[in-house]
Design a protein that fits this description.
By secondary structure, this protein is mainly α. The protein contains six helices and two strands; from the N terminus they run αββααααα. The protein is 74% helix and 2% strand. A hairpin with a 4-residue loop joins strand 1 and strand 2. It starts with a helix and ends in a 7-residue tail after the last helix.
Length: 189
């Protein structure tokens, strides 16, 4: 199990680096959705260029482009649209709940025998990347919940400590009063 975790830690950055390098190599097209593909791409490198441009989109533009690509893929599924959708699903400004449906689409595509080898390999890479991103986002969300719980417990513990310190101070005052009364010459015969 440790070997798998270590391999994942090594492969994820290598895969992201490969995507980044590929994104910097090629040109783009426009289909009215901003940078996009007007026809099925000739190669993965064309999808990578568009993916690189998609990474620069604002949160709102990324969401609109994502929805348009999903509708387009539902109407006429093609490799380029799916792979661009997969790239966009990893956009840091896109809502995390947008990633699992794309992962399912990718897994369906990967399960089919059809498709060009380079697209299948790219789909594999994107699938692994999205799966890791989803897993990491879930871990981060879990850690945030635990941190929030610990913070609430710490606030409650501080409140209880302040209450105990207040009561202790009151007891010390009472003890001091009792000692003063017990000392000779304090009005006692």
């Amino acid at each position: 199990m440790k070997g798998i975790k270590n391999a994942t830690r090594l492969l994820l950055p290598a895969g992201l680096l490969a995507i980044g390098l590929g994104c910097s190599l090629v040109g783009s097209w426009d289909n009215g959705l901003g940078p996009g593909l007007s026809e099925p791409p000739a190669a993965v490198k064309e999808v990578l260029q568009v993916c690189r441009q998609d990474r620069e989109l604002t949160a709102g533009a990324a969401e609109r482009t994502y929805q348009a690509l999903r509708q387009s893929y539902r109407a006429t599924p093609d490799e380029g649209t799916l792979l661009r959708l997969a790239c966009l699903a990893g956009h840091p400004q896109l809502a995390p709940e947008q990633r699992p449906p794309v992962l399912e689409m990718l897994n369906g595509y990967r399960g089919r025998a059809a498709g060009r080898e380079e697209f299948r390999l790219f789909a594999d890479l994107q699938s692994f990347t999205l799966r890791d991103q989803i897993r990491l986002e879930r871990q981060v969300a879990g850690e945030r919940q635990r941190a929030d719980g610990l913070e609430r417990k710490a606030v409650e513990a501080e409140r209880k400590l302040a209450e105990v310190e207040r009561k202790l101070a009151e007891l010390e005052k009472i003890e001091k009063i009792i000692r003063q009364r017990e000392q000779p010459g304090n009005g006692r015969p």
